[in-house]
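Case study 2.
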Amino acid sequence: QSVPGGFTPEQVQGMEHLFRQYLLDNPEVVIEAIQKYQRDQRLAEEERQGQAVLANLGALKDDADSPVIGNPDGDVLIVEFMDYRCGYCRSVVKDLKKTVEDDGNIRLVMKEFPILGPASIRASKAALAADKQGKYEAYHFALMTLPGDMSDPHLMKVARRVGLDTERLKRDMESEEIEAIIQRNHDLAQVLGINGTPAFVFGETLVRGAVDAETMRLLIAEARDRGS
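Prediction:
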C-alpha cells in the first residue's frame, strides 16, 4: 500500500521521524522560519497600508472639515489621529507643536479620533465646535497640555480660558455635522488599519504610536524629499 507521492506508510512515518528529530536537534531552524514569517507578514501589512494611504490621500489632506494647524499651504503633510485622553498623544504634543512651528512649512491636519470612551468623544466634539469659532488650535493645545478629566465642566473651563463662546460651543457640540465628522474619521482609520492613538501620516508614510522630535524631523525630511 502506498500514499500520495508513491511512498509507503512506513516510508512516510520514517521521514516524519527524521524531520521531527532534525527540528529537535536544530531548533534555530524553527526560530528562523518563524522570524521570516513574521517579517513577511509585516512587510505585506506595510505594503497594504501604503496602498491604503495612497488610495485615501484626498480624505487625509483635503477634507475641509478637518482642522489644519501650521501652514495651510505647507509643502509637507502631516496627519494626526488623536484622542484627548490618550497619554501617548499628550506626550508628543509639545514636540509636534514645536516641530511644526520651527519648520514653518508643514500642513498639520488633525483627525479627531476619540476611542477612549464617552469623555473622549465629548472632548473631540468640543474641539470641532471650537473650530467653528476659529479657535481650534488654541483650544486643542489647551486641552492637550492642561490637566483635567475631559468632563463637560473642564471642557467649558478651558473654552472660557481661550475666549470661546461657551453657549454656542455647547450647541455646536450636539450638531449632526460634528457627529458625522468624527464618524468619517473612524471610517478612514478603519480603512487604514489604525486602531490606536496616536497615529500619523507623514507625507505618504503611516506611523503608529508616539514619535520623538528627532524621528519627526527625519520623517518630515523624507516626505519633503519625495515631494509629499
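The CA atoms of residues 200 and 206 lie 6 Å apart.
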